[in-house]
Amino acid sequence: MWGRALGATASQSRMKLLPYLCGYMERMRWLSVLGLGGTVWAQIGAAAKARATELALEAAEKSAAFDWTGLLWKLVWIETLLIVFLAFRLIQLVVQYTGYDPFARWDRDKVNMRLWMAVGLGGLFLALWSTFKYAPLYLPEAASRHGVLIDGLRNGIISFTYPAFILVHLMLFYMIWRYYNGRVRAAVYQETHHKLEWASLIAISIPVVAIAIAGIYIWSLPVHGQKPEAGQKTVEIEVVAEQFQWRVRYPGADGKLGRYHYTLIGGENVLGLDFTDPKAQDDLLPAAKEIHLPVNALVTIHVRSKDVLHSLFLPHFRTHIYAVPGQKNQVMLVPTITTKEMRRKLGKPDFDYELACNQLCGGAHYNMRMKVVVESWEEYQAWLAQQKPAYQPAQPSTLTQARLSNLNL
Ligand SMILES: [Cu+2]
User: Fold this and answer.
1) DSSP helix/strand/coil, 302
2) Is the pTM of this model over 0.85?
């Protein structure tokens, strides 16, 4: 009986669920035990583990003693695996030696079908429920001109993929219920219906091509697609990434960012500015860890990295570009909502826009956050007026001078 259950031959169409599972476990013993144990552990243990981590952190705060909670949870982990393995082994041995199969009367296909329905419909319900449950955690409305288009594209795509997602899954589960073995056995053979194939091909191609074209246009906007409108103010700033902070450079009165060269980086000259360039001498390097942007101006952000790959991510403005060592990148945006206005809209008086590093760039990656302040043009100018220029009369040092003359800049 055991052997036949393993074989899953055509003559044995009504296999028993449990012996079959046991046989499967027997063959794939360790893999299955690990997989099943892992799944069980992930489901039941995730919440408990979070709590354990909390406790461990609390304990670590109180004293730097050995992490007993952590060890305990590791033991529970191993024990869970052992219990799962032993339970299956036990059932398997009982079936093997007594020949008694407590589940002999089960209709395995029916059980499978019902399990599938439960898992499938349950999963579909959870997917729908979580969409609405976590909706308050979504980003607020886009605070940049191109961001509104990006959101529009996203919402447009979701408005027909979401109903399709639900429909396709309902159909899938209907098929499982309708055609489980024991009800309808034979499938109907259908010759290729060429007209139908062509019709479905075209029907699917149209939205896909439309999405692709809209995507190429909209997604390229932040990189090179934007021009200043008549009378619109333009601003250029530079954001430089390094392990583990952002540095921001604003142009001085001339409105232009000066030259830099990586070989000039050193000492006080953290951005490697070339102070023989007059445009660099009035550049501003604010000490405050925040970026100021004027509302409704076309802002060009020049992005570079001093060491490894970082990523400039401005989620509220739907703007994102990599900071690549040795490469000049730039991204453009028009902030449309000031910080004050957004705070009022969201009803959160302490809300702030944020710049984050979106690339795991090393141990203190989490440090790479910066407050972004969007304010009126006047407020922006007033803030700029308070910032100190990067160029100090003592600079460039003799060492920097020597480097400069070597470079023939
Ligand atoms: Cu980074």
Assistant:
1) strand
2) no
